[in-house]
Amino acid sequence: MKTLYIGSTVPFSGKGLITLGLGKHFIEKGLKIGYLKPLGKLPQKVKGDIVTDKLSYFIYQFFGLDDDLSNLCPVILTYELMVKMLRGEIKTLMPKVKEAFEVIAQGKDIVLVGGAETVWLGSFLGVSGFKVIEELDTKVVLVNKYTGEFFLDSVTEAKETLGERLVGIIINWVKEEQQRDIEELVVPWLENNGVPVLGIIPYDAFLTAVTVAELSERLGGRIISGQESLNNFIQNYLIGGMEVDKFAEYLRRTPMAAVIVGGDRADIQLLSIEEGAGCLVLTGNLMPNDIIISKAEQRGVPIILLREDSYSVAQKIQDIAARLSLKEKEKVERGLALVKKHVNFERLEKLL
Amino acid sequence: MLEKLFSPKSVAIVGASTHEGKIGHILVQNLLKYKYKGKIFPINPKADEILGLKVYPSLEKIPEPVDLVIIAVKPEAVLETIKVCGQKNIQAAVVISAGFKETGPQGARLEEELKRLAQENGVRLLGPNCVGLIDTNSRLNASFATGMPERGNIGFFSQSGAMCIAVLDWALGEKIGFSKFVSLGNKADISEIDMLLALGEDETTKVILGYLEGVEDGHTFIQVAQEVSKKKPIILIKAGVTSAGAKAVSSHTGSLAGSESAYQAAFKQSGIIRAHTVTELFNYAFSFAVQPLPKGPRLAILTNSGGPGIVAADACDQSSLQLVRLQARTVEKLRSFLPPMASFFNPIDILGDAHVDRYDKALEILTQDDNIDAILVLLTPTATIEVKETAEVIVKHAKEADKPIICSFMGKVQVEKGVKYLKKHGIPNYLCPEDAVDALEKMWQRKHWLSQPLPEYPQIAADRSRVRYLLEMAKREGRFHLSETDAKEVLKAYGFALPQTHLARTREEAVEAAKKIGFPVVLKIVSPDISHKTDVGGVILNLNSPPAVKEAFSEVMLKVKSKNPRASIYGVSVQEMVQGAKETIIGFTRDPQFGPLLMFGLGGIYVEILKDVTFRIAPLTKKEAMEMVREVKAYSLLRGIRGEPPADVPALVDALLALSQLALDFPEIVEAEINPLLVKPAGQGIVAVDARLSIKKE
Fold first, then answer.
1. Residue B690, Cβ neighbours under 10 Å: how many?
2. Interchain proximity B102–A291, CB inside 8 Å
3. Do A252 and B590 touch (CB under 8 A)?
């Protein structure tokens, strides 16, 4: 049996997607796989009243696993857990992790261990990534986006700590303008320092997209038109606070955009509808003209009505855009296609 | 075209009313009052007689054929009526009723349905939500407006009903004649394009006037206007040109006002004469309706006082007209009868003590001078001048002259009789000389437009398959902005020259690159986080030696880091320094109404601060491209000033044509900008230094 820890030194690097991709690959090869995430942060109640980690549960379902769900995420970092740890009411959590791992590992060809945000998270609980790797005796693949010095420092430290356990790195979310430096400078440096590069996955803005329905839900809005287009994907955000000619330029340059605009700006609203914006987000709780609503209906452009002012809405949206959500099928499929195309599975398997 | 609408043999009014003051009553009243010659069938299930006419309970019950139906009932009933029109083979309808698109989603759906039914039943439909139409030749007043204009040769259409009513009332007061008068309303079927076509063919219309808020199909609009304006002048007001106006249009009609630049270009390219105010609209219309076009731009001004003459001369100088220099023969003839104090040169001042005979003789001489293309007669009501008689003399000469004569009799009370006489006999008179000059200039521009050959669009050779491949790759990878490298490759495929460029990550590499390219060179920071490189000190020009390059490299790095510490940096690009070239910007965007809108301007402050840019809609003719270049105020910089050599304008024109072709070939490119496009001295071509291309998601 083989064990592979999928971790990160840079947070929000897209481990979830890579885990799905690797697991899918092994399943397709006919291997029996197991999966667990020792430390989770997003609790979700699932069947049998078990509380587990949200993303892990998604991955569990995707793989079609049938292991006991109580072992899927043995430690969930909650406020209560933190308090108990600080007061010294809990001594050690590692045995829980090991126990869960052993149950899951039974009869498997390979077990994927999902890392937390970074390999350092959970140090104060005694279940940091580094500790878990050592205790469970796993190999490690790092999934990192490239962030310059921090990337270089943290990978250096990981290599020093993990030594031969580190089988390689997958550089994720590589933007077009980074590509040349990564290929010409970073990859040779990593290889020379004993960190095999197992994949360079290009950035795909679509993966950061959310549907209009989800956007409206997360913003707490009310949808007043375009019900049939709620599955439109939104990938960019524009604030319509300028003159209409100027705004037209931005709009044309920005695909799949949600346009955040005051309810009284009929000109910006119309332009956005005509140019086929992904949706309109109207702030200040101002109902638009009837004529605008009918145009929007005609063109199938959803309108979300909100109470807040444009600035607060923009702030909320920043949070939404920062995290990748893997809810929608289209996004998962597109992400998996990227993993399949850009990860060197052959080399990975040789190193395992 | 649209005969059934304008000259029907019979008219039915659905929603005719017995109650005075109701629209359904006024409609019947107007038909009777203004002596419509055909049959009138009022329809109302509850009445027997309206204004002495037999009333029918429904359209079906009319035993005779009906050409036109005027509808003033509730929106739902309008739809039913259109269906009956189909059964009864009625081919034209005027829908006065409101309650459609202008009222909201429900109304918009009704309007869509109305449109569909009209099409299905073969009915051409004016409105809904309109005032109606008037045709002074068939004596048809199918409107609820008050009054009927005199017969004339001006055809007028308007997107605004209120504007129709106001203009009509004003025309009645001014005794301006119209051929047709049409309120377009919501334009569910008949639009400004149909009106241009119909008025273009209409023999009773000599001048087409219109008030527009927006155009739906810009491409067809330009094509039709281009054809029609070769036959007769089209003078239009386009409302909603300011951002405040545009907002008002949007919330009033639910359509975009469109960008001012696009309308400006569209009007220019299709020969439409643009009026900016209602006054201008009628100022121009007057002259076009009654006077012949001038053969050239040469204007003579005849005046009985100095001041107005000077004002007119100023206005002329600021226009495309020329203040003609009189021939010696003409001057001699004038000298022979004018007092020595008079001015024999243009403007010709016959002095304040002039009587009508001086105007008479002077006009005799001026109308016979072939060097003069148009005459402007100014009159100030001095104590000596016989106003009415002067007007008569002008009319007499105008009849014989083969050039336009227009007047500005200044004042009000003293000149009234003369002005009346002039107007009655087809001589336009303007309150002030500037307006007169303005109208004459428009006439000269039209003459010039008419002399232009039909547009010819040059064929541009390009490696289209290469561009298609690059765009496909970008689309497949979900990129909506081409990388700089790809964008430049697209331009290369369309024949643009690019500067030699190398990436350098260290100062030593920078020196190597500079040596390869040849000095002098330019250094530019490469960073996705910095869009205005010059602003942060990220560009250093004119580096002549290895040490200079090394130093510049450190300086660029330092400046960028201090101005923008968080920017990612991916090296420095070393570029060939193009010398002695002029910086220009060319590009295009896509206007929602008119399609690809090309832009040209001189780089630096000329575009950004002075907004000195010109626009045209693709496709471009070579001549139009040339005009774009010449029209910018900074054009003289390209011609070369203070001993500089002129820039390679022909190469610049070719670049504009190539970009126009790119815009047409690849509709998915929504925006392009080449900034800067360097224009080298004559014969040396252009270089596209930086380019940005965006593509649309399918």
1. 18
2. yes
3. yes
All residues of chain B having their beta carbon less than 8 Å from the beta carbon of residue A275 are 592
Chain B CA closest to residue A296: B105
Measured CA distances, B370 to B177, B320, B478, B529 (Å): 32, 19, 67, 66
CA distance B446 to A61: 74
Q: Render pLDDT for A10-35 as a digit per residue (tens, 0 to 9).
A: 988 889 999 999 999 999 999 999 99
What is the widest separation between alpha-carbon atoms in chain A? 67
pLDDT tens-digit readout, B560-571 = 888 888 888 889
The residue with tokens 């700006």 is: A265
Question: If you average pLDDT over residues B78-104, what whole number do you get?
Answer: 93
Same domain? For A72 and A191 the reply is yes
* A175·B528 Cβ contact <8 A: yes
Task: List the structure tokens of A257.
Answer: 């955009």
The partner residue sitting opposite B568, judged by closest CB among A148, A291, A297, is: A148
CA–CA min distance A252, chain B (Å): 7
Domains of chain B: 3-287 (3.40.50.261), 292-450 (3.40.50.261), 454-497+578-698 (3.30.470.20), 500-577 (3.30.1490.20)
Whether residues A198 and A259 fall in one domain: no
Q: Considering the domain boundaries, does residue A333 fall inside one?
A: no
Q: Give tens-digit pLDDT for B575-598.
A: 999 888 999 999 998 887 898 999
Q: With bands split at pLDDT 50, 70 and 90, how would you rate the model's confidence at B697?
A: low
What was the pLDDT predicted at B254?
Answer: 55
* Domain end position, chosen among A203, A225, A249: A203
Task: Identify whether residues A177 and A86 lie together within a single domain.
Answer: yes
3 state SS of A44:
strand
Q: What does the alpha-carbon distance between residue A261 and residue A242 come to, in Å, rounded to a whole number?
A: 10
The ipTM is 0.71
Chain A positions with Cβ closer than 8 Å to B: 148, 175-178, 180-181, 185, 202, 204-206, 225, 243-245, 248-249, 252-256, 265-267, 269-271, 274-275, 289-295, 297-298
The token pair at A48 is 């049998």
Interface contact A253-B696, CB threshold 8 A: no
Q: How close A170 comes to chain B (CA, Å)?
A: 19
Tell me the nearest-neighbour CA distance from A175 into chain B, angstroms: 10
pLDDT tens digits along A98-155:
999 999 999 999 999 999 999 999 999 999 999 999 999 999 999 999 998 999 999 9
Q: What is the pLDDT of residues B344-400, one digit of tens each?
A: 889 999 999 999 999 999 999 999 999 999 999 999 999 999 999 999 999 999 999
pLDDT at B93 over 90: yes
Give the H/E segment covering residue A54.
helix A54-63
d(CA B257, CA A252): 17
Give a yes or no: residue A337 inside a domain.
no
On whether the CB atoms of residues A221 and A283 are closer than 8 A, the answer is no
Query: Same domain, yes or no, for A69 and A135?
Result: yes
Cβ-contact B181, B128 below 8 angstroms: no
Nearest chain B residue to A278, by CA = B697
User: Would you call A177 and B109 a contact, using CB atoms and an 8 Å cutoff?
Assistant: no
Contact B104 A175 (CB under 8 A): no
Task: Out of A203, A222, A248, pick the residue that ends a domain.
Answer: A203
Contact yes or no for A297 and B503 at CB 8 A: no
Parent domain of A177? 2-203
CA–CA dist B379, A321 (Å, integer)? 73
- Name every chain B residue with its beta carbon within 8 A of the beta carbon of A243: 243
| Positive/negative CA dihedral, B665, B668, B673, B674 | negative
Nearest to B108 among A175, A266, A294 (CB): A294
**Which H or E element spans position A172?**
strand A166-174
Place B198 in a pLDDT band, splitting at 50, 70 and 90: very high
